[in-house]
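Shipment paperwork, digital attachment
Item: protein structure file
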Amino acid sequence: MPAARAPEDAYTAEPFVPAHADLAALREAADGCRGCPLHRDATRTVFGAGDTTARVMLVGEQPGDQEDRQGMPFVGPAGKLLDRALAEAGIDPGEAYVTNAVKHFKFTRAEPRKRRIHKAPTLREMTACGPWLAAELAVVEPELVVVLGATAGKALLGSSFRVTEVRGTVLEHEIHGRPERLVPTVHPSSVLRAEDREGAYRGLVSDLEVAARALA
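Attachment content:
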């Protein structure tokens, strides 16, 4: 008889997600998630945060180094840039709900004790974390989902998603059994890495203005 697999080897968070829970209960339960191996190296689970009745939900890829240390999403440089772009586009950051497709920081190190370098999650890891995002969508019930970057897009819309092809447009798809309207754009961290940072920033603001108009 084969040995039972550890929960993380099954690659699904489903057994850890409580049914009919509010966001506070979901956040508490997520702290104990062992649905994939990413929990082993991360400091903590980084769950979503923000207005629980938000009209707009922003979904990024995964926590970064600062988010992993502080336990909150979008608190690093990319988060500060996102808040500025949202405000400029006419969306109050304080009235949004922000989260990530993957709730643990995946990273690599060139050498021990060196800076932790972001590493993109696999489709298997994103799929494993899907039940948490499904639960957040069910509780918040946003009118619009802003998809931040290619990885978040693949997690929500499938592996064929290409952010460059659909950014700044309003899409309608069924996500985790719910009909959703979505506006894809780049991840704010890509703006920080861009050679033409001002041009990349203006592009992000322009896409977020599409989201603002969709909410009007």
